[in-house]
Amino acid sequence: MAFTACKKEKEDEVNSVDKTGSIETELSVEHLDNTDILITKHKIWKDKKLFKEIIKKDTIPSLGDTLVGGEDSDGNDHIAKTKKDYEFFITVQ
């Protein structure tokens, strides 16, 4: 049975980065069995060249499971169990 996943809208997604002098950061969470992995990626841009890329992975506790609704390829509604996602709140100084 295949489900069509609901694509989440990315709030305030940046389509281009000023590479003359900026830090581009990406945060994501990879779900494992009983834990999650927080992945932090930084790209440091200077003079339109990638100066350095930093990738850090940290083990964090899983939030457990949740139920989500979905639709199969025949248009039938189903409920499926999936991992709960963390919400991200970013403060930039």
UniProtKB/TrEMBL annotation:
This is Uncharacterized protein.
